[in-house]
Design goal:
- This protein is mainly α.
- The protein has helices spanning about 35-40, 45-50, 55-80, 80-85, 90-120, 125-130, and strands spanning about 15-20, 20-25.
- Strands 1-2 form a two-stranded antiparallel ribbon.
- A hairpin with a 2-residue loop joins strand 1 and strand 2.
- It is globular, with a radius of gyration of 17 Å.
- The N and C termini lie far apart (about 35 Å).
Length: about 160
């Protein structure tokens, strides 16, 4: 039984026209979270930490080390086809990636840490997808049936 008050983050939307396409960036939806977290695992803390001071040159530098992950996660966050995002000029990708981080910063700083802590007991498959510890990990005799678990996101 859940008691207490939950403080929800008020969603913010941002719109930007890039290469003739109007891109509306809104907070991630539940279905999108595992794919983004999977792509950015290990990079989320840095992106969120630097979100307020991130600039285009810094984002382009991060793309040098994590380009494929940033491209794929940005495509999910801005809800545009991966092929479209891949053909963008680097500065446009950097701006869109920074916008996605900005719009979702509250989620990644406030909600994700709490979800990672509580999720293993609530939704083991989603917890596994976002890297939270699950009770099944303690029981090697338990094997998930073939085909169970999260499936790769399509963009």
């Amino acid at each position: 039984v859940m008691t207490g008050t939950i403080e929800f983050v008020t969603p913010v939307a941002r719109t930007l026209t890039v290469e003739g396409v109007e891109v509306v960036v809104t907070p991630l939806r539940v279905k999108e979270v595992p794919g983004v977290v999977r792509h950015l695992d290990g990079l989320l803390a840095s992106l969120v930490y630097e979100a307020g001071s991130m600039d285009v040159p810094r984002m382009i530098a991060m793309m040098g080390d994590h380009g494929d992950a940033i491209i794929a996660a940005t495509a999910i966050c801005i809800r545009q086809p991966l092929a479209w995002v891949e053909q963008l000029l680097p500065d446009r990708l950097a701006v869109l990636a920074m916008l996605a981080v900005e719009v979702n910063a509250d989620f990644f700083t406030r909600a994700l840490p709490g979800l990672k802590a509580a999720l293993p007991q609530l939704v083991p498959e989603l917890a596994k997808a976002i890297g939270a510890h699950t009770p099944q990990q303690d029981r090697p005799d338990q094997v998930n049936p073939a085909g169970s678990g999260p499936t790769p996101s399509t963009v």
